[in-house]
Amino acid sequence: MKQLRFFCLIALACLAGLFGSELICRRPGLRDWAGCKLGRGHLIAIANGRGLYANDLEDREGMSARDWIATENLRRTSAEERIDSALIDREIALIRAEFRDEAAFAEALHSQDLSVDSLREIAADHIRSLQWLEKKIAPETLVAERECRDFYETHRELFLQPMRFRASHLFLAAHAETPTEVVEAKSKAIQELSRRLSRGEDFSKLVAEVSEDEATKTRGGDLDFFSA
Q1: Res. 130 pLDDT band, cuts 50 70 90
Q2: Which one of 88, 135, 198, 212 is separated from 151 by 20 to 30 angstroms, measured CA to CA?
Q3: Quick check: 54 and 39 in contact, CB under 8 A?
Q4: In whole angstroms, what separates CA 85 from the centre of its chain?
């Protein structure tokens, strides 16, 4: 019986110690001191149990403490949202497509101290947050057709667009220091290309064949729309 009481007292003491240490660790003063000692700078804010330190803001260029707090609270609020893993796969695929190859993608992850798994977690948080926001906002954004028509009639200037043109070019370069003989050769080439076009040759094929504008030659020389 004494042994049982002894073990119970030890268990209670351990629980009390854990509870006390948890309370102490949650104290802002201690967390600020620990942040400075660990090289993260002073504690700026606490949200969702996580601390934001001065160095964290430096790593998040353009994000204020208020933005971070809002993001953390949104992440906590939306944590129960169920999302399709296919949405996460799509987000990762879109990010991966921004890099020239898998090696460049892996290098970018390494430079940010991320792995594919941690990137998936970030993407999942982002999708959950958007999904939660859309559910909250959608009921407030229902607009009747009559309201849309009234807004259009009273704000027509918002829907007007200036005249726009779409152009394509076949580009041969000759900068200011280009030798005279090269300029003359390119002028003759332009004249010959003009004759080929007048005979009905396909403009896009000629662009792909001879254009020196690498940015547009793969899309038929398209310069997209422009206006005054």
Answers
A1: confident
A2: 135
A3: no
A4: 19
Residue 168 has what pLDDT? 92
Is residue 224 within 8 Å of 212, Cβ to Cβ?
Answer: no
Residue 211 CB burial class (10 angstroms; 0-12, 13-18, ≥19): buried
Cα–Cα distance list, 228 to 167, 170, 223 (Å): 13, 22, 15
The SS3 of residue 65 is helix
For the segment 107-112, the average pLDDT, to the nearest whole number, is: 87
CA distance 181 to 173: 14
Q: Looking up tokens 């700026």, which residue turns up?
A: 44
**Amino acid (1-letter code) at residue 17:** G
pLDDT at 48 over 50: yes
The pTM of the full predicted model, rounded to 2 decimals, is 0.43
Residue whose token pair is 């606490």: 46
User: What is the distance between the alpha carbons of residues 226 and 160, in angstroms, rounded to a whole number?
Assistant: 15
